[in-house]
């Protein structure tokens, strides 16, 4: 498989504190990859290392088959980036900053710029200082897409957008980016947005990668089996490969399954029981489970 991002042992340390700790990450080319974690988990630090904005303490790898350290300028030339709080020159108009940014790139899709400016109802004649946070986010997306990047890195891109604008934004990702075979690296705490557009996800907590998987696998394999046995089950039934953890809920057992679901469920069907049911989990529930529950996301 070809990788848009392929890094090993990526670490960033500040005065003995590891903001990112030995991160191994592979993002398939052409995928929409969700990068999920609580506030302060290392998401933005990881993105800044990938872009060469800050230097890794150790580790490295390739972005778009280019060396992270040696080819950082080439990587940035092929990468569109949108931060959570886009910083733009407030004294410029929308049109002026578009022309300013255009000068840095050999290719610029002006037709796309105008199309999305109309869609977002952005008046490019107005100064950016008069734009709302949502309008600045929309302009930042346009600026990130206009050079036709092979990789688009989005850090909390829908933060500050109202529901209608968020739907427009996500539709653009699906229509403009995914259909053209580009790769999207999407960091967000709005899990519904991630669930709608991403096909791969990774969970990061306290600077360490916990899990990387496809969204389809999460939906088909990661489920909870709720069972009330007629008598105490044999211990090996609760320890089958693919069972993540077991909890008690009164007389019921809650079996958290992360893989081999069909095999595990078939085994439980063979054991005498009063109740046997499957509880599906959405991405938010899985996120809370992986993060340890109850944290502010």
Automatic annotation (TrEMBL):
One of its GO terms (molecular function) is ATP binding. It holds the Pfam family ABC_tran. The keyword Nucleotide-binding applies. It comes from the Bacteria. Residues 5-231 form the ABC transporter domain. Coiled coil: none annotated. PANTHER family: ABC TRANSPORTER ATP-BINDING PROTEIN ALBC-RELATED. This is ABC transporter ATP-binding protein. It comes from Candidatus Syntrophonatronum acetioxidans. The lineage of its organism: Bacteria, Bacillati, Bacillota, Clostridia, Eubacteriales.
């Amino acid at each position: 498989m070809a990788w848009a991002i392929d890094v090993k042992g990526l670490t960033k340390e500040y005065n003995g504190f590891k903001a990112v700790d030995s991160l191994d990450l592979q993002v398939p080319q052409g995928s929409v990859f969700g990068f999920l974690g609580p506030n302060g988990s290392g998401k933005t630090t990881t993105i800044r290392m990938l872009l060469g904005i800050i230097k890794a303490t150790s580790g490295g790898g390739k972005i778009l088959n280019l060396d992270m350290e040696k080819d950082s300028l080439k990587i940035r030339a092929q990468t569109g980036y949108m931060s959570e709080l886009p910083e733009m020159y407030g004294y410029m108009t929308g049109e002026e900053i578009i022309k300013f940014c255009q000068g840095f790139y050999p290719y610029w899709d002006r037709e796309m710029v105008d199309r999305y400016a109309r869609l977002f109802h952005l008046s490019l004649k107005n100064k950016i200082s008069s734009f709302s946070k949502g309008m600045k986010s929309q302009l930042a997306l346009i600026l990130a897409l206009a050079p036709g990047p092979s990789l688009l890195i989005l850090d909390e891109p829908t933060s500050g957008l109202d529901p209608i604008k968020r739907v427009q934004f996500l539709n653009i990702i699906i229509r403009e980016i995914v259909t053209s075979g580009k790769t999207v690296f999407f960091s967000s705490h709005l899990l519904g947005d991630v669930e709608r557009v991403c096909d791969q996800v990774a969970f990061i907590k306290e600077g360490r990668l916990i899990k990387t998987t496809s969204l389809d696998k999460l939906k088909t394999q990661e489920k909870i089996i709720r069972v009330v046995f007629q008598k105490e089950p044999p211990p090996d039934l609760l320890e089958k490969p693919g069972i993540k953890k077991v909890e008690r809920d009164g007389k019921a057992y809650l079996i958290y399954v992360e893989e081999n679901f069909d095999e595990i469920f078939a085994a439980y069907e063979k054991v005498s029981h009063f109740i046997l049911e499957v509880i599906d989990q959405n991405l938010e529930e899985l996120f809370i489970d992986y993060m340890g529950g109850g944290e502010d996301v």
